[in-house]
Inverse folding.
């Protein structure tokens, strides 16, 4: 990300934001509601294109890419949306198969095995003929993850992955995220405001602030907890401890 | 889309008479999955082997589809009772191997795929569906009537604010479209009938034909169909969305009867508004005929209106309003019932909305047919 500026109408959400995502890491982008986390994510996956600044994926600028280039980039990335975004009219298996449709020369047997393999990776073996409406929230989220990893993407983006999940399902999802990160060597960018998730899973945390319209802190979670002097960063990272004390 | 060239190469050599070694190198990805399997099996097919070893030292990249291909080859070789193994497995590929649950690949689906049913089963399913749908409609009708009876004794419990809101939504906001369509229908009937009646010098009868057709049949039914399209769908979508957001359950837990709270105001509003809209539609339909009569048939506005009025009796007018009342009940009943029957996700709301329009129009036409016969004998 190179000096990205994001605006909605006259309002500037992010200004001159620059950062790198390193291969194989889990980067968590955090900040309070309305600070521009989701806007940043949408720029990173090419859903919004900024006229100012560059978003480089493998050396190609998403903001300036034509449709063919963008399609090639999108084969290298996967996205798990806040709502699972599974297509309700398709079975889970058909949803996971969807990204494979562009690949010619694969036999139906191979496609079916790949679908089973991906569902197995997210602990949903046997559910390929179920419709999303027949699954629980946690299962749908994992189904969305299976679809996101269908092409073994180099980078996986998550928008509030554990939002709406109970602690058990959230913990299961976190384990899967960690397993996929290790097993498939997938780089992960997670947008979240849930401190507990961030502290457990992140290799590196980047905090965005609404007033600064950009990054106010970046580093490993424990390092930030130890050394950050900015009260906004400390308030965010120590919120869990404060809540525990109250509880 | 063209098939890309393989990103891998492999060499097969025999370490002794029995052990075949595949030395794989380059990139193995999703595009190569089937081709790699076919290439390796082609080598295996040439002669019998004691064991197979796949050497992955030269592999620069392999995705999970590539690993899956190796597993499939392994399964086929092991099924023949032969040994199989890997050497020089890079750590990245080992990670993928550990992530894939081998036994899960064999696991059958918990539910079989949808199968095409035979004619008898399909007919049975359709019959059962119609029966269950009819039953659900009747149960809801009973609940709705019970709610109305209760509220007739407790009129202060009716949400009159909501009634006014839906009167505006269903009635006031529907005036422009109902007026325009009625005007055009009146115009079309007058124009088409004038082409025939002119030949007999019976121009003046266009007026009575238009007014009779509009007041007795087209006014009530056209208005009802338009309101069904606008409001039955809106009722179904609104209540359906509330169902999937648990708002209906929330009402119930707060001690409100969802039917009294949500359906009755819509029903009262529609029943009040539809007869008014029907009268309005009648006037515009006659006005459409008047335009043709005055501009194309050389009739004066006074003569046209006199002739329009002649066949319209109080019985026809009241029966038209009675029909509008019943149509209004049908629209609100079906629209609300379809909304309440939504289960599951958002796609159900779309289905309920479509069903609300189709079912209410079907029932309106059926009820109109019954009216046509009954009113004929009553008169």
């Amino acid at each position: 990300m190179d000096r990205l500026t994001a605006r909605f109408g006259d309002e500037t959400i992010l200004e001159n934001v620059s950062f790198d995502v390193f291969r194989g890491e889990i980067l968590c982008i955090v900040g309070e509601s309305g600070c521009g986390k989701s806007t940043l994510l949408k720029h990173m996956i090419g859903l919004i294109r900024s006229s100012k600044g560059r978003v480089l994926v493998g050396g190609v600028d998403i903001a300036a890419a034509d449709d063919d280039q963008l399609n090639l980039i999108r084969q290298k990335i996967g996205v798990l949306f806040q709502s699972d975004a599974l297509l309700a009219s398709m079975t889970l298996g058909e949803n996971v198969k969807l990204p494979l449709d562009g690949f010619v020369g694969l036999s139906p047997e191979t496609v079916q095995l790949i679908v089973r393999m991906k569902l197995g990776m997210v602990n949903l073996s046997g559910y390929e003929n179920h419709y999303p409406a027949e699954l629980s929230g946690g299962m749908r989220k994992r189904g969305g993850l299976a679809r996101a990893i269908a092409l073994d993407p180099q980078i996986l983006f998550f928008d509030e992955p554990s939002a709406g999940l109970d602690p058990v399902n959230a913990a299961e999802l976190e384990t899967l995220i960690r397993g996929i990160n290790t097993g498939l060597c997938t780089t992960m960018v997670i947008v979240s405001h849930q401190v507990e998730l961030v502290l457990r899973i992140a290799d590196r945390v980047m905090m965005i602030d609404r007033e600064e319209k950009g990054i106010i802190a970046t580093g490993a979670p424990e390092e930030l907890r130890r050394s950050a002097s900015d009260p906004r960063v400390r308030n965010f990272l120590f919120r869990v401890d404060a809540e525990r004390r109250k509880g | 889309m063209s098939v890309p060239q393989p990103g891998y190469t492999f060499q097969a050599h025999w370490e002794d008479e029995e052990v075949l070694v595949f030395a794989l190198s380059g990139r193995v990805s999703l595009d190569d999955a089937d081709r790699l399997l076919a290439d390796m099996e082609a080598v295996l097919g040439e002669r019998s082997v004691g064991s197979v070893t796949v050497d992955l030292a030269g592999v620069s990249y392999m995705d999970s589809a590539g690993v899956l291909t190796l597993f499939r080859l392994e399964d086929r070789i092991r099924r023949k009772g032969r040994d199989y193994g890997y050497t020089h497995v890079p750590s990245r590929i080992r990670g993928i191997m550990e992530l894939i649950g081998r036994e899960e690949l064999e696991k059958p689906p918990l539910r079989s795929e949808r199968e095409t049913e035979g004619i008898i089963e399909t007919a049975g399913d359709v019959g059962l569906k119609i029966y269950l749908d009819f039953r659900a409609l009747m149960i809801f009708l009973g609940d709705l009537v019970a709610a109305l009876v209760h509220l007739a004794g407790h009129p202060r419990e009716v949400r009159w604010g909501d009634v006014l809101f839906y009167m505006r939504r269903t009635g006031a906001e529907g005036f422009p479209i109902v007026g325009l369509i009625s005007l055009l229908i009146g115009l079309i009937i007058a124009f088409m009938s004038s082409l025939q009646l002119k030949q007999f010098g019976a121009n003046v009868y266009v007026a009575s034909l238009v007014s009779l057709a509009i007041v007795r049949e087209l006014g009530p039914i056209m208005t009802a169909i338009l309101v069904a399209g606008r409001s039955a769908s809106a009722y179904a979508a609104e209540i359906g969305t509330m169902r999937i957001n648990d708002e209906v359950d929330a009402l119930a837990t707060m001690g409100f009867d969802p039917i009294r709270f949500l359906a009755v105001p819509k029903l009262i509003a529609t029943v009040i508004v539809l007869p008014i809209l029907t009268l309005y539609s009648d006037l515009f339909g006659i006005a459409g005929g008047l335009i043709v009569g005055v501009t194309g048939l050389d009739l004066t506005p006074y003569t046209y209106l006199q002739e329009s009025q002649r066949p319209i009796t109080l019985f026809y007018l009241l029966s038209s309003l009675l029909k509008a009342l019943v149509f209004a009940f049908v629209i609100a009943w079906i629209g609300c019932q379809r909304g309440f029957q939504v289960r599951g996700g958002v796609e159900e709301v779309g289905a309920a909305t479509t069903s609300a329009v189709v079912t209410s129009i079907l029932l309106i036409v059926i009820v109109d047919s019954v009216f046509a016969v009954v009113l004929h004998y009553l008169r």
Remarks:
- The two ends of chain B are 72 Å apart (CA to CA).
- Residues 123-378 of chain B form one domain.
- Chain B has a mean pLDDT of 91.
- Chain B has two domains: 8-106, 123-378.
